[in-house]
Write a structure and sequence with these properties.
Blueprint (H helix, E strand, L loop, with lengths): L2 H17 L5 E8 L9 E6 L5 E2 L11 E5 L3 E8 L9 E8 L3 E2 L3 E3 L3 E8 L10 E6 L18 E6 L2 E8 L9 E8 L3 E7 L4 E8 L10 E6 L5 E2 L11 E6 L2 E8 L9 E8 L3 E2 L2 E2 L5 E6 L10 E10 L5 E10 L6 E12 L3 E13 L2 H5 L3 E10 L5 E10 L2
Parallel strand pairs: 1-7, 1-8, 9-14, 15-21, 15-22
Antiparallel strand pairs: 1-4, 2-3, 2-5, 5-6, 9-11, 10-12, 12-13, 15-18, 16-17, 16-19, 19-20, 23-24, 24-27, 25-26, 25-28, 28-29
Length: 402
């Protein structure tokens, strides 16, 4: 940036300050990777605690890439949304604390590529309001992308960062259309999906309760198609404050898994052979368990990786330490092939170990890959009491091996 640009930026900021109402301000500059200012970038604020949007005005960058606008006090996630025509990927800054007038360091927007698609229902009618969610195929990290909902013509065009990405088309639940996934898509140039047809779906709903019939909020409801062994992507797959869930799925024989937040001290569970041929109600009752396990899904196995890391979450609510035997098995749910990838090994969990979770890195050997390549596999963690050999908890997550 030359001297004239610096002076112009200072003048712009001074004029902007004089026009602001008295209050707390957020300011900064947005540039691309060549340090070129990016104009017309929209900034959106969300409350970090609640995820709710925060109303602001004048929150766009000017011709020199600068922004300055009034904000409330608090901690916010800030999304930077560049014009689609610029082919720059969105950026989100999480947990930005604003206790006084705040100037952010330069925010750098990296290059991106345009993704387009045309979504129709089984009758060929354009689907409006279908959201295109996307995540990095190998890390599972979701990526912010604005403009990723289909318009009245069923068309969508948005920019994503380069890489191998998983896309999930999520129609509005009121449409009763099932989600559709496109996994492992290489995005290293503008990518046109063309016409994507989504299937008619059925509503799977129910109520999740715990001990004393108390409603359990925040339960992950995961749906697995038993014919393919693959997860069925769904929208709104967590129970609400009343313990209720409501998802749209394709007809078929399904396994439905329920996983409460690990801090709740409730055992995971699943119901197999749920034959969904019409709208189906499936309630589930969760039981207390003193020891919890859970595997946090962080992405998919990458063929070039020699190993892969998952995280085993553990919790012990009892007043004494527990010796727990842990074993992790990878199993092909269709062919029934299995392989132990960790353990069995015995670990001591301290008394009252919780409610916060600990993490244990599991490195899955690369020689698992050829056996399961191209198939979804279940990663099963089993915890048993080392003294009595009784089952304490078990958890299953499904991963896909490219």
């Amino acid at each position: 940036m030359n001297l004239n640009e610096n002076l112009l930026g200072i003048i712009v900021l001074v004029v902007s300050v004089s026009n602001l109402a008295k209050g707390t301000t957020l300011s900064g500059r947005v540039v691309d990777t060549a340090d070129t200012p990016v104009s017309n970038v929209d900034l959106d604020l969300y409350d970090s605690a609640t995820g709710l949007p925060v109303a602001t005005t004048g929150d766009q960058t000017d011709a020199q890439g600068y922004f300055l606008f009034s904000v409330p006090l608090g901690t916010f996630d800030i999304r930077f949304l560049p014009p689609t025509a610029d082919r720059l990927a969105d950026v989100i800054l999480q947990g930005v604390s604003i206790a006084s007038n705040t100037t952010l360091p330069d925010t750098v927007l990296g290059p991106g590529f345009l993704v387009t698609a045309h979504v129709v229902d089984p009758q060929g009618v354009p689907v409006m309001g279908a959201i295109f969610a996307n995540a990095d195929s190998y890390t599972g990290q979701s990526a912010p992308s604005h403009g990723n909902a289909t318009d009245a013509n069923g068309d969508v065009a948005f920019v994503v960062a380069p890489g191998t990405r998983d896309f999930i088309v999520l129609p509005d639940r009121m449409s009763r259309l099932a989600a559709k996934a496109r996994l492992g898509v290489p995005v290293f140039s503008d990518t046109a999906f063309g016409r994507i047809g989504v299937d008619a779906g059925l509503v799977l709903s129910g109520h999740v309760s715990g001990p004393g019939q108390a409603a359990v909020a925040g339960v992950e409801v995961q749906v697995i198609d038993e014919a393919s062994g693959a997860f069925e992507p769904t929208l709104g797959h967590q129970t609400d404050a009343a313990g209720d869930y409501d998802v749209v799925v394709r007809p078929g024989v399904l396994t439905v898994a329920f996983e409460a937040p690990i801090d709740d001290g409730l055992a995971h569970g699943r119901v197999s052979h749920v034959n969904v041929t019409s709208d189906t109600t499936l309630d589930f009752s969760m039981t207390s368990t003193p020891v919890n396990f859970g595997i946090a899904r962080t992405g998919r196995l990458a063929p070039e990786q020699a190993s892969y890391t998952y995280f085993l979450q553990t919790r012990n609510d009892t007043s004494s330490s527990r010796s727990v035997t842990v074993e992790v098995v990878a199993m092909d749910p269709i062919l029934g092939r299995s392989r132990t990838v960790l353990g069995p090994s015995t670990r001591t969990m301290p008394a009252n170990f919780g409610p916060l979770t600990a993490t244990l890195s599991l490195r899955i050997p690369g020689n698992v890959h050829p056996r399961f390549r191209g198939r979804p596999i279940d990663l099963i963690v089993i915890g048993t009491d080392a003294t009595s050999n009784t089952l304490l908890d078990a958890d299953v997550t499904t991963i896909t091996v490219p």
